[in-house]
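Dear colleague,

Following up on Tuesday's group meeting, I ran the structure prediction for the two-component complex that the binding team flagged. I've pasted the input sequences exactly as they went in, so you can double-check that nothing got truncated or mislabelled along the way. The structure tokens for the whole assembly follow below. Feel free to forward this to whoever is handling the docking comparison.

Inputs:
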Amino acid sequence: MSVSHLPRLPADAMFASPAQRRAAIFFALWLFIIFVSVIDGYLVFRFRHLIHITELNPVGRLLIHATGGQVWGLLGVKFAGTIVACSVLLLMYWKQAAVGIWFAAALAVLQLSLLLFLLFG
Amino acid sequence: MRLVLNLSEWKFLQVVSALLSSLAAVSLFTVLVGFVLLPADIKTIRQPLYASIIHCHLSPDSQQAVSLIWYMPFSTAAGWQHQFVRHGLAGERPELQMPWPQLRPSSAAPGKSPDELFVGCWDGRLWKLDLSQSGAAPQQLGKHPELGPHSLACSRDGRWLASLGPKFLQVLDLASGKVAWSLDREMPRCFAIHPDSRRMLVNLADARVVELELATGEALRTIAAPCESATHASFSPDGRLAVLVSAVGGLHLLNWETGLSAWPADWRDCPHQFRSCVAQFSPSGDRLITGGGDTSTLAVWNLRTMRLEGELRGHAKSINGVTFLDEQRVCSFSADGTIRIWDLAGRSPPRVLTIDVTPLAG
């Protein structure tokens, strides 16, 4: 039997119900938000010798200055902030899935902008 | 045994599970990103030391220099270290002395006399150093209203000291020791003091270039040519010309009296690269050195002919600034940890001094 004769799966076979599809969309967005945050944190660590010049966020600059040029404070705040934001998203999704997805989508767009800026800006 | 959770317990469990899920996901991605990206960057990350020269102040006889360096030992979590080192200009690796280990300088500017050096520190305090006496204690002048002023300049008459940090521009009256005025609402980006010691130019966040009275901070006029996000400004020694380097592209050479561009009509902004923030007039004002085709090269402009004389190439990393020794010799200092002394007349290869801070960094 050639491959072309394999039975075709329906497009939405992976997600049996709309609820599952919603869940898949939410978690994809949620993971993307985390992924970009981690990449951002890695770049802070990688370029920690230049970050006091390149960091544009005033809070980030303040944290770097306050810790005498070390990036660990900034990284810690980024890490904690990501966890808190993602937890809040999860709680929103569990309480009201549609609202959670919209908020996750909005945040994901912001994170996508940040990723593009980090890579090409 | 109670098997049913009440509402507050259920909510608490939800919060805990949300936090744990997020923590697990962030940790997983951190490990994954580390696995994927670390091998390629490990060599850079494991460098024992990163060192960059931010300022270089030459003695009048050009035999000695005081350099503001910052370095970061990668092997410790000490963060960056800023120090002044005093060194000679002979040899390839001059011996370094650290005469003021108590200071954590963020910026420096020459004073009225060549033996005076003004210093802004990361804690905001402003100091004056007397370079004529070795071991002389720094004299505190005042305080910048925020941390780490990154730009400092003293008026030619030695009366005013201007400091600029992330938000504030402050002018200190050195005669009285008091703050003359400060500016923050309009978000000053960079400034330069006019050689007449009465005026200064300030570039604001809204791209305006304004002329302020140095003694009072009163706005005298707004220059017609706007400049967005200037990173550096400088006046020619006679005060006729002003140059502004913009972070978003552009090298603005202005006739300061008219406020109009002093470049010829057919001039093109080339090879200046917009990320460079170097712009320095020679002592006579006949030459202008700016960033070149990339951040590690310099462009030498002849302001008599308004032509590019050539480019100075050799630094491995971004050039942080230049200082003229005299009309023909210029010293450039860079993030590659070297100082290069160029002979503009002879076109011979530059003399390279490596400021090796490894012994200082421990």
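Chain A touches chain B at residues 30-31, 34-35, 37-39, 41-42, 45-46, 48-49, 52, 58, 61, 65-72, 79, 82-84, 86-88, 90-91, 94 (CB under 8 Å).

Cheers,
M.
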